[in-house]
Amino acid sequence: MGKASSLSTKRALRQSRKKHTRNKADRTRLKSQLKKARAASSSEQKKLMSETFSAIDRMVKKGIIHKNAAARYKSRLTKTRAAE
Predict the structure, then answer these.
(1) pLDDT tens figures, 4-58
(2) CATH no. of 7-83
């Protein structure tokens, strides 16, 4: 990443790296949950949908995904469920 010279910039760089790593892990976890919900059979899907919606809402609350992106994910999941 970048080079830092002062103590405060070094600290800021450490914090941003840590935050980046955490956010990336959370985003990956969310994507896995979305894939699992899409691939689930209709009997499992109801439980997975609530888990997935909860995960999406948590990511919005943490600021990892935008609220409009969350709405899009939810809408598409609901649409695929209704189509079955």
Answers:
(1) 789 999 999 999 999 999 999 999 999 999 999 989 888 888 889 999 999 999 9
(2) 1.20.58.110
